[in-house]
Amino acid sequence: MAFEKDNSFFTGRLKSIGYAFKGALKLITTEHSVMVQFSLAVLMVAAGFYFDINRYEWMMQLLAFGLVLGIESMNTAIEKVADFVHPEFHQKIGFIKDIAAGGVLFAALAAIAVGLLIYVPKFL
Predict the structure, then answer these.
(1) What transmembrane ranges does the database entry give (predicted)?
(2) Cα-only R_g, the chain
């Protein structure tokens, strides 16, 4: 099956959105780290409703989720490409994968900080 580019602006964008949703669903249903992070995002949304957080807190919380899930998506893509290119262990591939995982850690730490700033005062 040959790749055929859709030159129509509207249908091309619709197809791109469809591929994006397909990719997001694959991530949520096949990658354990994304499953955990997505589940935490759902729990935090429920907590947001329960604690009636304000608009600014919602904005920060949603940006934090988006950051973590977006960076995790890029990390997963890098790992999949690296494993495809070099299936056996290789020190340089391992280094690249570690750096990508480090990016996820930075995003996760930022999201944890946002969550603490929003929810700790609600318990005090």
Answers:
(1) 34-53, 99-120
(2) 18
Q: Model-level pTM?
A: 0.85
Sequence ranges of the domains in the chain: 32-123
**pLDDT at site 8:** 80
Instruction: Report the alpha-carbon distance of residue 26 to residue 31 in Å, rounded.
Output: 8
- Look up tokens 């397909």; give the residue: 22
DSSP 39-104: HHHHHHHHHHHHTT--HHHHHHHHHHHHHHHHHHHHHHHHHHHHHHH--S--HHHHHHHHHHHHHH
CATH topology of domain 32-123: Helix Hairpins (1.10.287)
CB 38 within 8 A of CB 28: yes
For residue 80, the tally of other CB atoms under 10 A from its CB is: 11
